[in-house]
């Protein structure tokens, strides 16, 4: 247990803008105590004591979440899981490994790479996040179009329940023995229990990787061309379609170039023969649908510099206001929804020095997601007024997204930021979530308020 103020303060923030703004004003909530369990059993014991005493418990992994999920809003126990850092049971036949919730993403990757494997979940927060946070916030990495999101990369998990029990899910992820408990806890953001470790599904490191950029006259031509190519069966590892603002603010800045317009970045990986075929045929398909083959340099440059956007001098800093409006939809709904959000932002927030960019970065056979990023370069000086505008942006953008038949958030989780919007998204299904929450956590101590629960 850590009780000194510095240790508690340091762990009472994630990357939620509002909490950082309040912390700067000396007004954020700080946990009463930090508990650092060293085993799954110690996690379970902590939860049982907390439930008995009615003390809130907020799990924390790397603290890189952008939604306020790891903020100890009600005070209580901050459960720092970073000591659950074992990597074990590498199965070189099944290609799985067991990793503790506190294993840092980068350490896992380096450990696997030394042995010829990879865990193909590469969020831009690879250097910050931990395995438990990957799972609890239901994240996605840049290679998701080929390898899937985190929920596709888990065989089984151990979870400590608020009752103090430790459960293990069915050991393989494909079965017909009832509902999948992995999927109940993935994305539950510590509101139903604590994931202590998980058996993750690996891949061999690819024999070959190839890069290509394709330019389009407009977003609609790009989305349609990529849809057709993906539905025909091509599976690039990454597809990132940038709108002109994202090309200007992201690609051009990190590469220090004058690239402009709508650009798709493509990455292919796997056995060399497959990569060469897929690269050639997919680019041919995109060109036939209105694209321009612009060679490998831009895409390779992006790959090599892809983390830069998230670090100084590119990342915004307080008092700037920023956030990611992340939405997903079927192919017919994605562009109208994106245009509606964009119109709202440009119409009502340009007065604050708005920059608004969008790139479509995770693709599915049925649709895609768009990562809309806003920065207000000239926010009001008064922190309460800036927070009011910030909260208003989420409330209004979520309303527009749902009205347009899209879904709020593909992979950043909910936390406090989107807690008020979940009921509208789930409809009558909300009652099911509330019933599960009440049954598993009758004392209401697990991460209160997150997910709106
Ligand atoms: C620079 C940057 C880039 C990012 N890029 C991406 C990206 O590309 N893709 C992406 O998906 N996300 C991205 N994110 C968001 C964030 O990194 C992810 O949500 C990540 O998965 C969070 O992991 P974490 O270990 O930091 O979790 P935390 O922030 O510590 O926690 C996240 C949530 O999970 C809960 N939690 C944590 N561990 C457990 C556990 N073991 N059991 C139960 N609940 C738990 C917490 O209470 C909280 O609600 C980015 C963030 C930053 C700052």
- What small molecules accompany the polymer chains? flavin-adenine dinucleotide
- Tell me the number of structural domains: 4
Q: Largest sheet, if any?
A: 8 strands, antiparallel
The end-to-end distance, rounded to whole angstroms, is 27 Å
The helix tally amounts to 15
Name of the level-1 CATH class of the largest domain = Alpha Beta
Structural class: alpha+beta
Level-2 CATH architecture of the largest domain: 2-Layer Sandwich
Helix content: 25-40%
Shape: globular
Low-confidence stretches at least 5 residues in length (pLDDT < 50)?
none
Q: What does the average pLDDT come to? A: 97
> Care to count the β-strands?
18
Radius of gyration: 22 Å
Strand order of the largest sheet: 14-11-13-12-16-17-15-18
CATH topology of the largest domain: Uridine Diphospho-n-acetylenolpyruvylglucosamine Reductase, domain 3
Q: In percent, how much strand structure appears in the residues?
A: 15-25%
Notes on the protein architecture:
The model has no long low-confidence stretch (mean pLDDT 97). The radius of gyration is 22 Å and the shape is globular. β7 and β8 form a beta hairpin. The chain is built from 15 helices and 18 strands. It folds into 4 domains: 5-82, Uridine Diphospho-n-acetylenolpyruvylglucosamine Reductase, domain 2; 87-204, Uridine Diphospho-n-acetylenolpyruvylglucosamine Reductase, domain 3, CATH 3.30.465; 208-310, Alpha-Beta Plaits (2-Layer Sandwich); 321-413, GMP Synthetase, Chain A, domain 3 (2-Layer Sandwich). The strands form 4 sheets. It has an 8-stranded antiparallel beta sheet with strand order 14-11-13-12-16-17-15-18, with helices on both faces. Helix content is 36%, strand content 21%. It has 453 residues and is of the alpha+beta class. Flavin-adenine dinucleotide binds next to β2, α5 and β9.
